[in-house]
Each structure stands twice: as structure tokens, then as C-alpha cells.
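Protocol step 6 of 9: fold each sequence in the batch and record its C-alpha cells directly after the sequence line. For illustration, a two-sequence batch is reproduced in full.

Sequence one:
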Amino acid sequence: MTPTTIELDLIRIAWALGLAAVAIGLSLWQQLGLAGTLALATLRTVVQLFAVGIFLSIVFTLRSPGLILLVLLVMITVAALTARNRIGKDIPGLLLWLWGAILTSTALTIAYTMTVVVRPELWYEPRYLIPLTGMVLGNALTAASLTGERLVSALRNNRTEIETHLSLGATPGAAIATYRREAIKAGLIPTVNSMMVVGLVTLPGMITGQILGGADPLNAALYQMLIMFMLAFATLTTAILVAYGIKQQFFNQAMQLIDPK
């Protein structure tokens, strides 16, 4: 007998809101000062997910490649803006570089996955393209933010050491090699940690969603493998590109360390 998906209606979601209400109540009881933040986050979750659900229903119905690509470009732009805000708004040219880095890593990952692995009848099949891109973008955003924050902080806090290396004849790349390496490793920590414990400690969104939707657990596990491999490539590529872009911003043509803010 094929399992059927339990549909969630508005009444069930209203009951689910009880969990958020209890969390807000606990915050008030413990005087954590988080009640307002939790209430706003809950409201935004409801509004944003209702909006995206309605919008994606339209996109899936129309199946227009132009509209789908527009949605993806908007998602990439929002990811780049968010990463820029976390790293620092005072670095000129950073937003454009982040946009290009996230676009490049996401495009390479999705192009390979759609043409070599999944191979749907239509390359722009929204049922595959939009969810896969969304998962890649979320993790690329995290990698970009962590790498950028770590490297910018290191370049600003270790000027004397870097300038000493430069004065001894080191190239900018050699002078910041240690900081660059540590920043890239920091950007990959969430992805690597997830890969280490996936299936043992956590059941991520892809496998959970497919199982809840009635899919065969083994096939869901295979899809989750695909996701983890995609994320490993995308996050590493993003981190490398972001680190390179920040290095370009912090050194002038005379190979001198500058603060571009």
C-alpha cells in the first residue's frame, strides 16, 4: 500500500504556532529579552513562507524559463547582499565580487547536477532547479560570510605581521597564506560537520522532506548524498573565490597592504 502524504491545513498550522508561542512564553519567563525577536521571526516566517508558497505555485504552473531564471537571479542577489552585510558594508566592490562568486559556484554546481546527474527532460524543470539552487545558495551564503568575516578581520588585525612579510620580499598571496587558508577552512566548517554526522545525528531537509512526502527512504538517502556532494563543491568554490576577491581589495598594484574602507 502506497503511503499518502498528510496534508497540513490552516488549522494544523495554527496548532503548530503553539510551539512558537510556548518559545516566546519561555523567553518571557526566563527574562531573556528574546520575546520580541522570536515574535517578529515567527511573523516573518509565516508571511514569507506563505508568499513564497503562492509565488512558486505560479512559477511551477507557468514553467517559463525566463521567469525561473529571474527567480534564481533574485535569490543570488539576496544571498550576495546578505553576505556583504555580514562581512562589512565599508569595502567597495565587495558586493559585486560576492555576487559573481556565488553565481559562479552555484551555476557550476547546478549545471553539472542537472546535466550529468539528475537529467530531467527540461533543463529548467522548476521542481528540481529551484529547490536544488535554494539549498546550494543557502550554504554558499554561509561559506561566503564565514570566509569573508574571518579573512577581513585577520587582515585588519595583523597588519604589522603582514607588512613585515611584504618588506622581506613576500608576495601578497604568500604574506596572507595562513590567514587565507584558515578563513577558507572556517567557511567550510558547517558543510564538513554536516557531512560527518548526516544520517547519524541529523536527517537534513531533503531526506526528511522526501520521506514525509512518501518517497522510498533509500531513494531519499541517495538524493541526500547528491545534496551533500553538491554543497561540498559549491561551498569550497565560493570560499576560494571570496578569499581571492578580498585579497584583491586589500592590496594595491604596488603590492601594499591597504584598508579599502
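Sequence two, same batch, same settings:
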Amino acid sequence: MTRVQANLLLLLAAAIWGGGFVAQSTAMKAIGPFWFIGLRFAVATLAVLPFVLFEARRAKEKTSARHAKLYILIGLALFGGAATQQVGLQTTTVTNSSFITGLYVVFVPLIAVFFLRRAPHWIIWPGALMAVTGIYLLSGGHLSALTPGDLLTVVCAVFWAIQITLAGTTVSETGRPLALSATQFAVTAVCALAVAAAVEPVSLSAIQAAAPEILYVGIFSSGVAFVLQVIAQRYTTPSQAAIFLSSEALFGASLAALLLGETMPVTGYAGCALMFIAMLVVELVPGFARRRLPAT
């Protein structure tokens, strides 16, 4: 695969994820957020399972008990992110959700600072300031205008950052990204279905009404897009991958405007632009700096 082909696959993955925000929002016209999460990740588990079996046949080492515990912990972090994002979509727009969720790019290195004691690149601090300013502008310059859904989505970005940090260190040890994916999907499905059964009503007609969204997000957003990402990132640079994957927020906002008629004031667009720039500089600047270092 050429680098151009790999980058096009990453762009396709980002577009699928952007469409997932619209599907997540429209599904809740028929079904509760936890039923949607549970069914979505149950489908995702089944979608990834064939790839897991293929991976298992080629694996050099079996998954240890310690790694299994880490998989479950990562699944709990994924559940936290999925739950806060989905519930947040009840009181925020798809546009806001897609951009605020993308702040995990900024939160990942901050988590490394506070929990892993790793010194960050200097760009993290101005990037974090830009991201916070972007949220402020997204509220129209009035923090009171931020909805509960916006604030839940900030929490969602923190959960995503925890999940990404744990998943990165775990996969580097195991070399089993698909096994991790299937496990975390299954853990999230079980947790969400347990909560849904306790607090949300459901009917067969509601599930049928939300079935297109459940299948789209379960099969494509969680299954196909993840596989595309894993394949494509073997043939391109991390910096280029960051650019193409971060376009998820732009696809989410564009599809929300096209399909749902969402709009926002000029300050909101300025906030989205600032958050998008923060996501890019946090990913790209450290990479450029490493490339400029003289060989030793």
C-alpha cells in the first residue's frame, strides 16, 4: 500500500466516525442512550470477532491474566467515555460533541504528566490553553451558555484520553490490538446493557426504529473504521495520520449541518477552529521536532 492510499483510508475512517456522531444523535429519538450503547458495542464485538480469531492464530504469545485485567480496565474507561458522550448528546449538538470529543488529543499528554510522570513537549501547554479558549468561544463567550451535554462531553474526552493511554501501553506489550478491541467492546456492552435494564424502558419496536443507527455505528464506526485505521497506520507517518484522523470533527460538523440543519454563531465556528488547531499542533509539533534532531 502506498502512503497516499493509506492516508485515503484514514480519511475514510474519519468520515465514518464523523457520520457516527449524527447516527448517535438521531438514534435517541427512538431508544435510550444506554440501550443504544449496549446494542452498539454488542454489534461491534461481533463485527471485530473474525479479525480477532485471525490475529489469535498468528499471535506469538497468549494473553496473560494481567493483560486480561488491563483489557477489562480499558473497557471500563471506554464505557465511561461512551456513556458521557451519548448522554451528553441529549443536550448538546452534534457539532459541539464532535469538536469537544476531539480534545482527547490534548488530554492524553496531560494524563501522561500527572499519572505517568512523563514530561510533556512544551507545545502541550499552549495547546491546552487554545483548547480551553475554543470551548469558551463555543459557548459564545459566556460559560453559562455551556450546556450539561457540553460539560459531559469534556468528561467524555478525559475518559477517551485514559482509554487511549492505557490501550497504547497495553498493546505495545501484547501486540494484540484486535483482542483488546473485542474485549473492551464486550465490557462496554455488558456495562451499558446492565445500566439500561435498570433505568431505561425498551421495546422491540424501539430497537427496530433505531436499528439502522445501531448497525451503522456498531459495524462501521467501531468495526470497519478501526480496522482501516490499524491497517493504514502501518503505511504512513504518525503526523500525517493525526491530520487525517482529526478531520473526524470536521466531518461530524459538516454532516450535522447537512443532515440535521445545525448552525452556530461566528464565535462558535471560531471556537471550533481554535480547538481543531490545538488538536493538530499537539500532534504535529513534537513529531516535527523529533525529525529535526540530528542523528546520533
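Proceed to step 7 once all outputs are recorded. Observation for sequence two: The mean pLDDT is 84.
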